[in-house]
Amino acid sequence: MSSRFVVTGGNAGLGYFTAEQLARTGARVTIAARSPERASRAAESIRVQVPGAEVDLVRLDLADLGSVRDAAAELASAPIDGIVLNAGVLPWDRSAASADGMAPTFAINQLGHFALLAQVFGALTERAGVVALGSLSHHGQRLRLGPARSERDRRIPGGYAHSKLAVMTTAIELDRRVRAAGLGIRSVIAHPGYASDANSPVRPGITERSTRAYALAVRRIANTKEEGAAISVHALLRGVGGGCYGPDGWFFALRGAAKPDRLRGPVLDPAAARRLWSMSEELTGVEFRVA
To answer: What is the pTM of this model?
Structure first.
């Protein structure tokens, strides 16, 4: 029986190429995405690139906890061998509050994924991998553990960096909890460096060709989206629980193939992680029991 992997935001960008590469392993891939139309185009593209690929779709809007609940119920109806929590949003991509009144960046990147994972956790298989998408932007951040409804989180780029610190801190706390429970599930962080559409393979309706000037400008400092996705796939298939994987390139680790990265700073603070976990449960109304 083939493995089954779930990719949130698998309809575009890094998520699309993550789903395509996982399909090449012979696994069944589920794309969980907000737009059924874009997800359908992504699934068709994967079937063109990987003949015989098994791809199915689940509608998931991470900014709506009701949608998260419905998607989780559908996803958990069959065993899950791995899940890549890829979907994310930048502050300038979404200005309106989430359906539940939260600042959108934190709601989507942290709270939606937290609630989703809590509700599918029982469907994860014994050695399942859970990959959280981190970011180099988390450096220099401190967790702000008050309500996530502030105008500051909603309007400034720092809200993204703070949300990514929360995502990464949660991933490390999940690793602590699965180890304490004696489980074999692997919680891993991946960050793609600077992953650009420039020089990425063209997938009609999903990715388009960049201008030649831009492609040449970033070629030496950026991964393609396909190369960035390969880091997520490496983390899912071969990553060690509690580990972080990023590019091995020389220029601020913005590009290159997957290598283990050393974590340090607030992301490793267990007391802050426990408070963040409790706050995420409170704000989502979902208890996340690791057992």
So the answer is: 0.90
- Helix residue spans in 9-122 (DSSP H): 13-24, 36-49, 65-75, 104-106, 113-120
The catalytic residue positions are 160
Q: Which two tokens stand for residue 29?
A: 């891939």
Structure tokens at 19: 């789903």
- Residue 34 is classified by DSSP as S
Find out whether 4 and 27 touch, Cβ atoms under 8 Å: yes
Q: Where are the domains of the chain?
A: 4-284
What gap in Å lies between CA 103 and CA 53, rounded to an integer? 37
89-141 pLDDT tens trace: 876 666 667 877 777 889 999 999 999 999 999 999 999 999 999 987 656 66
Q: What are phi and psi of 124, to 5 degrees?
A: -70, 135
What are the C-alpha distances in Å from 28 to residues 119, 173, 185, 245? 20, 28, 19, 24
Written as six digits, the tokens of 206 are 């999903």
Tens of pLDDT along 147-184? 544 444 444 444 888 899 999 999 999 999 999 999 99
Three-class secondary structure of residue 40 per DSSP: helix
In this structure, what token pair is assigned to residue 109? 């990147």
CA distance 189 to 235: 7
What per-residue string of b and e applies to 123-161 under the rule 16 or more CB within 10 Å gives b? bbeeebbbbbbbbbbbeebebbeeebbeeebbeeebbbb
Whose CA is closest to 284, among 72, 123, 134? 72
Write the DSSP symbol of residue 132.
E
CATH number of 4-284: 3.40.50.720
Report the candidate in 121, 94, 118 with the shortest Cα–Cα distance to residue 106. 94
Closest to 272 in 3D by CA, of 171, 145, 158: 145
Residue whose pair of structure tokens reads 């791995």 in the numeric block = 82
